[in-house]
Amino acid sequence: MNAPKKLNNVNYLIKLVLVAGLGGFLLRWATGQNITVSQYVEAIAKTPIYVIIAIEILDKLSDKMDYEFLGFAYGSKFGLNKVLMSLIIAGIGFVAVLYFMTGTITMTVGAYNTGVLLAAATYALYIVAPETGDDELIFFLWLAATIATSGQYLGVAFSLPIAKLTMLLLS
Q1: Helical H runs in 65-136?
Q2: What is the value of pTM for the model shown?
Q3: Which of these, 2, 113, 134, 160, has the minimum number of CB atoms within 10 Å of its CB?
Q4: What transmembrane ranges does the database entry give (predicted)?
């Protein structure tokens, strides 16, 4: 029988400090923007369900790295550590959310709706946050936002991006 995997407390603390610091920076930035709670809730509710599922999977992958070694995925052999891999996974999630919610990726922050940026950043912080892989918190947040908007954006949330995926594969 294998011994249970042990949580790496150093990685846990590093991730905790990173999420708190980046979250604080994000909230400080958001206070200077002209955003309402309504815009944020709308952005959460409009998030496609396949993006929510992908975020939950990325979060589980990121948290799993705190417990065990996945070999080729990361390690000192490749010069990457577990916290850096979590940040890379979160960055990929952030960019993917922006793309699937806006249909484009630009390098100017002003080109995006502030609610969408805040939602994408929330998802990225969730991926990096330690010990969130056991619970589907973003899914529950999406459900709450859907209820708060009376299901107004369910058509958007459940639409499959056939055209977007086709264009992405062809380019």
Answers
A1: 82-102, 114-128
A2: 0.77
A3: 2
A4: 12-30, 83-102, 109-128, 140-163
